[in-house]
Amino acid sequence: MRLAVAAGGAATLSALVALIAGAAVPTADTAPALAAGVTGTGAADVAPVRHVIRYVMLAPGQLPPTGASTKPSTVAAPVPTPAPQPKPKVVTRQSGRP
C-alpha cells in the first residue's frame, strides 16, 4: 500500500514539475517569420489590421479636426428639477397624555 501511494505521489510530482518547467520555456514567436515571408500572392497572406477609433466630444461652436467624419447629435432638453417637498412635521407625546 505504501509503495502504491509513493508511486502515485512521484507521478504527481513529476507531472507538476513538467507543467511548471514547460511554462517557463519561451516558445518561438511566429509573427516575425510571417512578416518576413509575406509575398502578397493571395488573400491568405493578408495580415490582420487593428483599427483605432477615437471619439471626440465637441463643444457648441467648435469645428471637428480635418478629415474627421461627424454624425449629427441630438441634444436632449434639460429636465426641470422637481420642487422641494416640505418635510413632514413629527409630533410626539409623552405616554399618559391624551
Give a verbal description of the structure:
With 98 residues, the protein is mainly alpha-helical. It is built from two helices and no strands. The mean pLDDT is 75.
Descriptors for this entry?
mainly alpha, single chain, 98 residues, 2 helices
What layout of secondary structure does this protein have?
Elements: H1 2-24, H2 31-36
In short:
With 98 residues, this protein is an all-alpha fold. The chain has helices at residues 2-24, 31-36. The termini are far apart.
Strand content: under 5%
Mean of residue pLDDT values = 75
Total DSSP E strands: 0
| Oligomeric state of the chains in view | single chain
Number of helices: 2
First-to-last CA distance: 86 Å
Order of helices and strands: HH
